[in-house]
Design brief:
single chain, 959 residues, alpha+beta, Thrombin, subunit H, Rossmann fold, 7-stranded antiparallel beta sheet, 7-stranded mixed beta sheet, 15% strand
């Protein structure tokens, strides 16, 4: 049944092109003139057409034409429901009295809208002038009437024509010349343009200079750039247009072979990245009450390549600038309009670069289909282009933040490397200015070597300008367009601050604490105090701080912001007041439901300020913005770290050895209790001292560089991807090489120190024991490490990627290490001792006690060897020794470090970026670090933290 007959499908799913919904628009103007256009019924009572078709109309009739040639005319309201001359589209409403004809209030499936990214085929059905026909039936009655028949135009279009105007150029078969010299396409205006069942434009013009084979259409994708947010919302309500350009379906759709399985690593990465950053967007309250209206424009700075290179034009083609101006929610559209797919975003500190990259990532993923690239944010501050290639560094970052990508790929290498090499990753490189200035040239050189790699890069303007202009060797980023963020105005943030504040009772329904301040900014913008505040609030960061301090916290009066003499003093005030304001508020409890819940702790503003300041100073020393739990202890001097690790490792071996000596001597010898206690204390002291020295020295010499990286593997008994044999053998050799010398040292200690002191209990086993003990400990350590290497498998794609989850995985691995040491050392030792009568001299009491003795040795080995190894060589062990014991003990961090970091994240002080935390902005981090260091220096001339700091060789710098 046709729409004209009153029928409509009951389907609610979006529909593609339907000939029954095409209309001819018949218009009578104010002077009695008549003209025609085309349109498409987009809902039960609305029709989409071109705005110029119904301009100055006093009567509009909609003519539906079915496949059988049946014509049905229905009236429309002469005044459009919605129109805009800029994009030349209008929405008509079918008149109320059309209900008797079965047209009004009928529901039809919504329309699907798309955006093109490559040349595509397209089609359009309208009523052009060259389809003017004489009605044969009317001529037989001696009267001649004319009508326009439909024309189904089949053609093609490309996203790279008419870029400046932002319209679609449609190539179609050319009709013959019009006998009256007019355009043969008159009447086609308003026809919907379709591609693969998606509406991509509305026919609006025919330029005579283009020839008869070209039509111009208003591009759907361009509407988002030309219309206001309110207009887009109205169109969304009327015709179902998506509220964001990124939600338009990408055309052409991926081919069938790109419809990848759910277990494809790229699709798994896309799900994980989306989950992570959507959560972060919620945490940052980007949409509460609405996003700040950030705007960007094509930069005026001389920092970009030739437009011909950016547009990838052939040799000799004329190159014109791309129209890249837009707002925050148009960043994906702006990026897609750059043929080279390389875009640089410049913005001052706090201007909103991080929010823009987050919006880009989320909008891209909203519109992404299987097979598209996966956008991943990489913080450039940790890249040393002089030491590490771009791809190697990105590969390491991917594995750190998404551990399942450490798994081997089918053709060699890791999954992370395979995704990079096959072009499945869209790098969002955040913070070019955070690379040390002396390395900017090498960074640009590395980026320019990857000329085919699409990317989005952010930087502060001055640093980027110096990088590309300050030396003869400098160069622009090849084929990259450059846009720059603009500052906010009082109209941009005024409504935001008002709606984010609680109403002030008695001051009117919309009265807030910001009323007087905003009135001053609007009425007297050029007074010094108003100008200072307007300058500071021109960045989203400062607006966000002001909102937290004065809108969220009760009892604060923002009028004090008008009392500061300079913008710098005002900015410093906002940064200083942020932490106290945040920690006076109760944190929100929006943790994931599947995460273990911790007891809520309340940190005082003073303690929080101190601890956060220490963390910020720690990051400044490391020259990075990534707050990684495994690096927290590196702020302590190497000598202190050696002492702490050595002491704990010595206690780990000495305590169980000394305690384990008591039952062995009491049961296996005739010595009294006093002897057993004295010998146990001596063994505790000497074994602990030797173990402490060995582990401390090994740690000190092995850890001259950066801290141990956390393991991105977990322990899995069955299934999973196993290590290759070479790695298992390497681990065995490492354990054997470490175990044998350690056993010899302990054996010599027992025979040449403890024995001569009169504490030989006769259980040494003589020469046989002296030979077997090193072999047993060496083989046990080797097998323990080899078994662990075999048990380790990459974390699966369902695992979380937060810092606390990675820490939890490493802690579990460490405990499994100790269990393996117990089983490998304890059971074999027990069996050997129990099955070899006379092996331990007087201790020849049968297999039961032998097995118990062996288990005792196993427990000693588990705690001594396992924990000592963990403390010295694993990220979790060093975290425990330094961040969970030493730093809290010296007052530099709280005892519950992870809980504090999670709480700071919930309060909006920190943000999560994969497996690490970051301060919400580098300015806040720098302020906290400076305040902490200044306060620390004022208390005593040489502070422990400054004395214990040891610069590490990294390739990044703090701004």
């Amino acid at each position: 049944m046709s729409a004209a007959d009153g029928g409509a499908t009951e389907a609610s799913e979006p529909d593609g092109f339907d000939v029954r919904r095409v209309v001819q628009v018949l218009v009578i103007g104010r002077g009695g003139e008549r003209w025609r256009g085309s349109g498409y019924r987009v809902s039960g009572n609305t029709v989409l057409t071109a705005a110029h078709v119904v301009r100055d109309a006093i009567s509009v009739t909609l003519r539906f034409l079915t496949e059988d040639g049946v014509v049905t005319d229905v009236p429309a309201e002469p005044d459009p429901l919605w129109e805009d001359s800029g994009v030349d589209i209008a929405v008509l409403k079918i008149a109320q009295d059309a209900g008797s004809r079965g047209m009004y209030a009928l529901e039809v499936p919504p329309v699907r809208f798309g955006r093109i990214t490559q040349p595509v085929d397209c089609e359009s059905l309208g009523f052009p002038k060259f389809k003017l026909r004489i009605d044969i039936a009317s001529s037989e009655l001696n009267r001649t009437t004319q009508y326009r028949d439909s024309h189904h135009a089949l053609g093609s279009t490309t996203p790279w024509a008419d870029l400046r105007k932002g319209t679609l150029e449609i190539s179609v078969s050319a009709p013959g010349a019009d006998p009256e010299g007019r355009s043969p396409w008159e009447g086609m205006s308003g026809a919907a343009v379709w591609s693969s069942g998606y509406l991509i434009g509305v026919v609006s013009l025919h330029h005579a200079t283009d020839g008869p084979g070209r039509l111009t259409a208003s591009r759907v994708q361009r509407w988002y750039k030309s219309l206001s947010r309110d207009q887009i919302d109205e169109l969304s309500e009327l015709i179902g247009l998506p509220t964001r350009a990124a939600h338009l379906t990408r055309l052409p759709p991926p081919s069938a072979q790109l419809q990848l399985a759910d277990d494809d690593p790229a699709e798994a990465l896309a799900r994980e990245v989306s989950r992570q950053w959507r959560k972060e967007e919620e945490q940052r309250r980007v949409h509460d009450p609405f996003p700040l209206p950030l705007r960007f424009r094509c930069t005026d700075r001389n920092v970009f390549d030739h437009w011909a290179n950016i547009r990838k034009l052939p040799r000799g083609a004329a190159a014109h600038p791309l129209p890249l101006d837009g707002e925050l929610d148009q960043i994906v559209e702006a990026y897609l309009s750059v043929p080279s797919s390389r875009l640089v975003v410049l913005g001052e500190a706090g201007a909103g670069k991080s929010i823009l990259t987050l919006r880009f990532l989320v909008d891209w993923l909203d519109a992404r289909v299987p097979g598209d690239r996966v956008p991943v944010i990489f913080g450039l501050g940790s890249w040393d282009p002089a030491a590490t290639s771009l791809r190697d560094w990105m590969c390491a970052q991917l594995v750190r933040d998404h551990p399942f990508l450490a798994a081997p790929a089918a053709h060699g290498g890791s999954l992370a490397r395979a995704l990079l090499d096959t072009g499945k990753i869209l790098p969002v490189l955040d913070g070019f200015d955070e690379i040390p200035s002396g390395l900017h040239g090498k960074a640009l050189e590395a980026l320019n070597k990857a000329t085919t790699m699409p990317l989005l890069l952010t930087s502060r303007p001055d640093e980027y300008s110096r990088a590309v202009n300050d030396s003869k060797e400098s160069d622009v980023l090849t084929a990259a367009a450059v846009i720059e963020l603009e500052g906010l105005t009082v109209e941009d943030y005024g409504d935001y601050l008002t709606r984010a504040s609680r109403p002030v009772r008695g001051g009117g329904p919309d009265s807030t604490v910001w009323d007087d301040v905003l009135a001053r900014l609007r009425e007297t913008p050029f007074t010094p105090c108003s100008a200072n505040l307007a300058e500071v609030l021109s960045t989203p960061l400062m607006v966000s701080l002001a909102r937290t301090i004065y809108s969220d916290a009760p009892g604060q009066d923002p009028r004090e912001l008008l009392d500061f003499p300079t913008p710098e003093a005002l900015q410093k005030h906002l940064l200083a007041a942020f932490i106290p304001a945040v920690y006076k508020l109760a944190p929100t409890d929006d943790r994931d439901a599947d995460r273990p819940r911790r007891r809520r702790r309340h940190w005082t503003p003073e303690h929080a300020q101190h601890w956060l300041g220490y963390l910020a100073a720690h990051l400044a020393e490391l020259r990075t913005h990534d707050l990684a739990w495994w690096q927290l202890g590196t702020a302590v001097s190497r000598s202190t770290r050696m002492l702490v690790v050595g002491f704990l490792a010595g206690m780990a071996l000495g305590v169980p050895t000394g305690i384990g000596n008591l039952p062995v001597d009491l049961v296996g010898t005739t010595h009294p209790l006093g002897f057993a206690i004295e010998r146990g204390l001596l063994v505790w002291l000497l074994h602990g001292l030797v173990a402490g020295l060995v582990f401390g020295l090994v740690y000190g010499f092995a850890r001259r560089g950066p801290a141990s990286e956390p393991s991105t593997l977990h322990i899995q008994l069955f299934g999973g991807i196993r290590r290759n044999a070479a790695e298992i053998v390497r681990r065995f050799v490492l354990g054997f090489s470490f175990g044998v010398p350690a056993a010899i040292a302990l054996e010599l200690l027992d025979r040449f120190v403890i024995g001569p002191l009169g504490f030989d209990d006769g259980l040494s086993g003589g020469l046989r024991g002296a030979l077997l003990f090193p072999a047993e400990l060496g083989l046990g350590a080797g097998f323990a490490l080899a078994i662990m290497a075999w048990l380790e498998t990459p974390i699966d794609t369902t695992s979380a990627i937060s810092a606390s989850d990675l820490l939890r995985t490493n802690r579990k691995n460490a405990f499994v290490y100790m269990l393996v040491w117990l089983l490998v050392l304890g059971l074999p030792a027990g069996i050997a001792i129990g099955g070899a009568p006379g092996y331990l001299g007087e201790f020849a009491t049968g297999p039961v006690l032998g097995l118990l003795a062996g288990l005792t040795f196993g427990i000693e080995g588990a705690f001594g060897g396992g924990l000592g190894y963990g403390l010295s060589f694993t990220a979790w062990g060093q975290w425990v020794a330094l961040s969970r014991i030493w730093l809290p003990l010296t007052g530099r961090l709280p005892w519950a470090v992870v809980a504090f970091l999670d709480d700071a994240h919930e309060r909006g002080v920190l943000r999560r970026a994969g497996a690490v935390y970051q301060f919400r902005h580098a300015q806040l981090e720098a302020h906290l670090a400076h305040t902490f260091q200044a306060h620390h220096a004022s208390r005593r001339p040489s502070s422990p933290i400054m004395a214990e700091r040891e610069p590490l060789a990294t390739g990044s710098t703090s701004p």
